[in-house]
Write a structure and sequence with these properties.
Shape: elongated
Radius of gyration: 20 Å
Number of strands: 0
Helix content: 55-70%
Distance between the termini: 30 Å
Order of helices and strands: HHHHHHH
Strand content: under 5%
Oligomer: single chain
Number of domains: 1
Structural class: mainly alpha
Largest sheet: none
Length: about 180
């Protein structure tokens, strides 16, 4: 199904929110190396544990916060800049299978962070291999946001808005499974 004959206007640049969210996201990518460098300069095992915990837990939290700041308008703008917008400009609902797969991709990158924080002996000692593992899971995390679609960005953004509320649509009895 081609949409070549449909004229779609470019989305508006989200401005400050996009750049602030992008800055926080890029900063979160440097949390792993910073934590490992700082850990090497501390003698106390207790302080090493605190440093590792803070830097490994803050990286995924910073990623989620950055997405909440950017919102759906940034998602649409990124899609437009990647030239995917014209092809996918007509809104489509994400299928349950795609949504569940996207949630799996969204959650799975948190596992290596917690393993590395609480059981670092399970990962290889080589810094390059650890960095590659975290870089790979960061890519999985970013790709999950595009698999989940624009409505998920709004859901995530609502976590950071105090006045946001949830409404559930009631299905008629004959449609319930």
């Amino acid at each position: 199904m081609k949409h070549n004959n449909i004229v779609v206007q470019a989305p508006e640049n989200p401005g400050f929110r996009f750049y602030l969210g992008l800055s926080i996201f890029v900063l979160s990518l440097f949390m792993l190396p910073t934590g490992l460098v700082l850990k090497g300069h501390v003698e106390s095992h207790f302080l090493k544990g605190i440093i590792l915990t803070v830097f490994w837990v803050s990286a995924p939290l910073m990623k989620i916060i950055s997405i909440g700041i950017m919102g759906k308008s940034s998602y649409l703008w990124i899609k437009y800049k990647m030239h995917l917008y014209r092809r996918t400009a007509i809104p489509h609902m994400v299928s349950p299978t795609r949504y569940n797969f996207g949630l799996f991709l969204f959650i799975i990158p948190f596992i290596p962070n917690y393993i590395l924080s609480y059981a670092p002996h399970l990962f290889p000692e080589a810094y390059v291999i650890r960095s590659f593992i975290h870089f790979f899971f960061d890519l999985v995390f970013v790709s999950s946001l595009f698999v989940l679609g624009g409505n998920f960005w709004d859901k995530l953004r609502a976590l950071f808005i105090y006045s946001a509320t949830v409404t559930f649509e009631e299905k008629p009895l004959h449609e319930k499974a």
